[in-house]
Specification:
- The complex is a heterotrimer of chains A (492), B (320) and C (129).
- Chain B has helices at residues 28-34, 37-47, 52-73, 95-108, 122-125, 133-144, 167-180, 193-202, 204-209, 221-234, 241-256, 263-284, 291-295, 299-303; strands at residues 4-6, 85-89, 117-120, 148-152, 186-191, 212-216, 238-239, 296-297.
- Chain B has 320 residues and is α/β, with parallel strands linked by helices.
- In chain B, helix 2 (37-47) runs antiparallel to helix 4 (95-108).
- Chain C starts with 15 loop residues before the first helix and ends with a strand.
- Chain C is of the alpha+beta class and 129 residues long.
- Chain C is globular, with a radius of gyration of 17 Å.
- The chains are: A alpha/beta (492), B alpha/beta (320), C alpha+beta (129).
- The interface between A and C is large, with 41 and 43 residues.
Chain lengths: 492, 320, 129
Amino acid sequence: MNAQTETKAQNTELKGKERYRSGVLKYAQMGYWNGDYVPKDTDILALFRITPQDGVDPIEAAAAVAGESSTATWTVVWTDRLTAAEQYRAKAYRVEPVPNNPGQWFAYIAYDLILFEEGSIANLTASIIGNVFGFKPLKALRLEDMRLPVAYVKTFKGPATGIVMERERLDKFGRPLLGATTKPKLGLSAKNYGRVVYEGLKGGLDFMKDDENINSQPFMHWRDRFLYCMEGVAKASAQTGEVKGHYLNVTAGTMEEMYKRAELAKETGSTIVMIDLVIGYTAIQSMANWSRQNDMILHLHRAGHGTYTRQKTHGVSFRVIAKWMRLAGVDHIHAGTSVGKLEGDPLTVQGYYNVLRELKNEIDLPRGIYFEQDWADIKKVMPVASGGIHAGQMHQLIDLFGDDVVLQFGGGTIGHPMGIQAGATANRVALEAMVLARNEGRDIKNEGPEILRAAARWCKPLEAALDVWGDISFNYQSTDTSDYVPSPTVSA
Amino acid sequence: MSTTIVAKGEAPPPAPPTSDTPPASIDLAEDFRESGVAEVLAQLDRELVGLKPVKQRIRETAALLLVDRARKRMGLTQTTPTLHMSFTGNPGTGKTTVALRMADLLFRLGYVRKGHLVSVTRDDLVGQYIGHTAPKTKDVLKKAMGGVLFIDEAYYLYRPDNERDYGQEAIEILLQVMENQRDDLVVILAGYADRMDRFYQSNPGFRSRIAHHIDFPDYEDGELLAIADTMLTEQNYRLDAGAREAMTQYIALRRAQPHFANARSIRNALDRARLRQANRLFESTAGAVDKEALSTIVAADIRASRVFSGGLDSERRSPS
Amino acid sequence: MRITQGTFSFLPDLTDDQIVAQVEYCLNNNWAIGVEYTDDPHPRSFLWEMWGNPMFDLRDAAGVMMEVRACRKAVPDHYIRINAFDSSRGFETVRLSFIVNRPKVEPTFKYTRTEVAGRTVNITMTTEF
């Protein structure tokens, strides 16, 4: 396809009078493409997956993306010359075809640090994705990854609590944390809701959780929910000797209302509050600040992300959202399960976990990490695996994700045939038995089912759980796998 | 402070399979090879010049350990054999090197779990004030467990003339562990032969707990000359004919003097010879010196030593 | 009431062999081991008494078991736990913590409710021996 070949003569930058003559120039001529540019350590880098319209040159398309996400407009403007325009222009410096995907190109673009306000995710996103995604010459556009320089990372405070501090507050080490969302999602009254929370925590879970759309509806006002939940939390704590928690969802229509709700959560002694992604980046940062000032763990439900993260060709990859959220300062974020009911190729999901948990990400193409990312000691975010997982998958979950993760078994707890406490106990026993075996050196990936069955012999709830759900798995072809390695969907 | 922990990184060779019915017969030669013992002995052979009697004793000990293991597999014996050892001899006769290899041997035969060596002297075990000794000794023991504890100049633990000495406490703790935790730790005590003898006489508890006594005789003159050659070659020096003769006489004389430390004494002598060679070249040579001159030690460099006139080569040398 | 603190509390009490296996896992990860004890397992009371300082540079679990047994002998009716400390950057905290001894009769927790504004109730938990 000759539309793909570069036409270098037309893609070289124009200088001087040529550049600022009125009229329309190609973006590549306006300085938004520079194949010789070496990114500075202080540049913010973005990797876009571009699908140009037929007949559009990929370099020109990359330059257009660079231009439209920095200073350009569709025609030459003389006012550019009132500025140090060359430094403000983003530069596409590398364009290469995506393996095995004709018509798609990876474009690497560098942005000078001066383009961004310190400590503002809203500004970062407005700059990078605010304008360019509707651009007609592109059939599709996806923001795949970003490199945030230490100079920029340091302008954020990052997670208020972080994995290490969370564990020290809960006094829980050496194993994944366990949670569950109260079910049914909607409709329970405050008293019934508190009952479900108490049962789950008493049975052995560390956390229970509001669902993303439980805010304050006619069937249950938020104040009532908070008061009845915290009674459940306190009672379960007293009966087990453990620190327990319930993510109280403080999402509301306005910031003012959110602060009111967060204050009640604090007054009633909660260790953790929860917000939904849909409140927006600015609200998330404000809540992170509040959490830091009030010793609160901040859980983020990634509500709505699937509308733009799931398709490979268009949108924003979740790994970028994860990076933004780590900077914004959340302590928990839902990041995928691989083996559950929601989308997530195993390697790609591990990539998200690495972005959240590592001190420094190395390039790892099969896991979708395209840049080295130094987090400058910003705290680590605890990933949350939630969605259609059950005790029978414990060995896969631990093998894939290790110890620093919250495993949430909503249906897997509340739907247990012997009751909610039994459901919680089944999960906790399965978890501890698996961690014990892994530490002893056993191959849990392959011996997992056997280890579970052995524990089930002395734990009736676990036996019942395995009998009911042991064969359930969610085997569908993933829509977002790495281009660099074929990976089969994990089966139970 | 001279606690050294020598790492043992490799996994042990697979233990011979244990089944409920003991084997009817065992091929010792094959065991010898499979377990890696042959390799350890070969390594010892390479590392130490001469020392034939010591190497022979190690071989014999290895055979005993191998047979003991076979007997255990056949159900002829249940208990762990006593493995603690006593190494006696002058400094510089290879005691620490052999201890290291011994730890490896014990590891390969499955007598110790991790196979590392912790090397200490009295000061690492004994405290300076009341209550200081027990935790200090226990700390060292805990670090050594799973491997071998090598106590050099062990007799310094016992100072009966000083009533405020806390060495006795360390001795009690050691004796206890040597008796009751033989599965967890092997102890090797080392030092001059005569002083070790007196130590055992005053502390009979040790003698009864030690299964293997190995004496490390001094190197022979010829062996020491060979060691001198090796040391010099490593640094690209050589002795000329006159120097060689001088060195031979030096060795014979030095050996008779106090605080003879075998290979270490040779190293010290060579260091001083190199110093004299350097000064000789510097003071007396006019014009350029070639490679030959820079790398040759001559008789004068050696004969300048006070050993030849009955004195020590330098100020009082501390033993080892 | 069986207190379910520590990593393995929902499993039957660990045998000494199982404890050794866990300690070996910690040593292989280069974590230091500390032994602690208490008679008050209130969940907000993170300061248990140390049984000696944390042990560094151990190569084998035998040393730890020695201390655990000595601790059990000294305070047989206390909770005793093993902590593993990771000094690496990004952690610098406890990586594993589990109970290796329980009193014959475990305490319970009393909790008192104090009604404040509206229907809000402040709850305090105290150990009841």
